[in-house]
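@channel sequence for tomorrow's demo:
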Amino acid sequence: DRSTMNKVRLMTVVATVVSALASGGMIESPARGVGRVFPLEKKVVRDEVTGVEMTVLTDGTHSDARVYHTHPQWTADGAWIVFRSSARGGEGEGQQAFAVHEASGEIVQLTAGAGNKVGAVHLSRREMKLWYLRHAPLPAGVTPPPTRPDDAEITQVVELDLGRLLADAKAGSVEGTPGGYEKIVATLPVGLHEAGGFGVDASEKVAYLGVRGLGVGDHLPSGVTPYPKPEGARMGAGPGGIRKIDLVSGEVSVVVSKVQAGLYMPVRAASSMAWPLSLLGANQRLLTQALNMPSA
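structure tokens (generated this afternoon):
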């Protein structure tokens, strides 16, 4: 009868939970968002040519991708690999960050919500935490700068407590408020926005970020002007700059303003020095720092 069927279902659920806890595994979470635990996708496949067995951690059906290739991929404890996916998160949220346990194959969602920029998520090499960027709406009562009246977003640097989040996911006790695992460590001035190139330095006390918008180019030497954007080009126009972000105090300071970091013509940095085409993009940003070019 119905009563007996309900008892059987309840006993099955209890047995599943007890089994998961006894084996040290995670309990699959039905909820979406931060701390969500996915069913295991790990499997062993044999290479058809060499016969070598390979362990696959994700099933390849969720548009999964690594974090930016120059950044750390593993958590500080060496147990988890962080990746990003555009198909595992909530509808309309875009890419989010996830972690897969290398030994067990358990997958946990790390970020959720619109505006998260996880392409350059940066893992700490020292502690169980990571940093990423978020585009958030302007706070109530804050107006955009006169030069950018349609600007309705601010850029935030978010620090995520991976150790506590992953431990709670394993225990099945993830907090109901995702913000309980994160804190906003810095916010760019209104009108100043990220333009790629986010990275944390070896001390893990400061980060560097390419920027555009308000104030960028204001401190260029006399006579140095941005190149116009080449016709039909998606990239290539200046000015752009680099900002140093103190991850402890949240202070945002100028490192250098640069002009032209595209692939369409030689770079002219703040010192008016010309660089060959091979030293463009991210490499040029590093060189301008290393050579102590004039601050913007």
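heads up for whoever presents: The helical segments are 2-22, 162-171, 281-290.
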